[in-house]
Specification:
The chain has two helices and 17 strands. The protein is an alpha+beta fold and 303 residues long.
């Protein structure tokens, strides 16, 4: 009996060791996957065309808008980053045409530009112009049309030291249920510009945190393969960016199952640059709990 008891104890101990080893391995693999995701995020922000490269945002008036590095222009590019006078943006009926001053080297797809109609970002393929380290294109936000400027040599890129984040915890990898609405719901999404965007939402993501039920309305654009979530929580303005964070999730699987991994919650572009035009959390997407997961506020930005 003693021998059997000892064998049983040893067998039980072996099973427990194996289970612990497996659990540790799973935790390590999960941690590695989050670290790899975060590293890709950091590498992307170091790229010469990242959000950190933004160097200006200029809203155009109808008619002529002179541009260049000189202070007398309607659109004043950063000092010492180009000639004082570079040309004119002509806005008429929502269309922008650039007219380049003679002798100024501005390129589109490596070809010199004199006059060119510029497609905006709404087209999905905006016309990008280049001069030295500068590049710019037309953006449209509601009825406002402007020029977004990038500088691949922007000091913000060189000064970037990464993003602090909360410790990774599987507690914040939460299973949610996608509950479709009877028909597509149009949700009002405010922006930092003071405008309201109307975005489609086909259902709610319902989940629990510490036994309490919550829900989020994701943006579900036609043709998208997942969900885009803009949310706020009790850490905003303290440990995290004051205007909320973003989260992506894969489309619902069998039974409506969706994984919300808040360890991948990330800062919106406005956390890195004053020249971004970010959406803000819809009022129903504010969680009255502290989501201590994902990215914290960017130290080099503004809260």
């Amino acid at each position: 009996m003693a021998r059997k008891s000892l064998c049983g104890t040893l067998a039980f101990g072996f099973v427990m060791i194996m289970m612990t080893a497996c659990a540790t391995k799973t935790d390590a693999d999960y941690l590695k996957s989050i670290d790899e995701w975060h590293q890709k995020r950091v590498d992307g922000l170091k790229a010469p065309d990242s959000w950190l490269s933004l160097a200006g945002l200029y809203w155009l008036k109808e008619g002529e808008n002179s541009f260049g590095a000189g202070p007398s222009n309607d659109v004043v590019f950063p000092r010492d980053e180009g000639p004082a006078e570079m040309g004119v943006f002509f806005l008429e009926n929502g269309l922008v045409t650039v007219r380049v001053k003679e002798g100024v080297d501005i390129f589109h797809d490596d070809a010199p530009v004199t006059t060119l109609e510029m497609k905006s970002d709404v087209s999905g393929n905006p016309t990008v112009l280049n001069h030295r380290t500068l590049s710019w294109f037309v953006i449209q936000r509601g009825d406002r049309i402007g020029i977004r400027l990038r500088d691949s040599a922007n000091p913000r890129i060189a000064d970037f030291k990464g993003i602090e984040r909360f410790p990774v915890s599987e507690k914040w990898r939460i299973e949610a249920e996608f509950k479709p609405y009877d028909r597509v719901k149009i949700i009002s999404v405010p922006t930092v510009l003071g405008t309201i965007d109307q975005s489609p939402c086909t259902g709610a993501l319902v989940f629990e945190i510490e036994g309490r039920e919550y829900s989020l309305d994701p943006i579900t654009d036609e043709g998208s393969t997942g969900y885009f979530i803009i949310f706020g929580d009790a850490t905003n303005g303290k440990e995290t960016y004051g205007a909320g964070r973003f989260l992506g999730a894969e489309a619902a699987g069998p039974g409506g199952k969706v994984i919300l991994d808040f360890n991948k919650a990330y800062n919106p572009p406005c956390a890195f640059s004053p020249f971004a035009t970010c959406p803000l959390p819809p009022k129903q997407n504010f969680l009255p709990v502290a989501v201590k997961a994902g990215e914290k506020a960017y130290a080099g930005g503004h809260h």
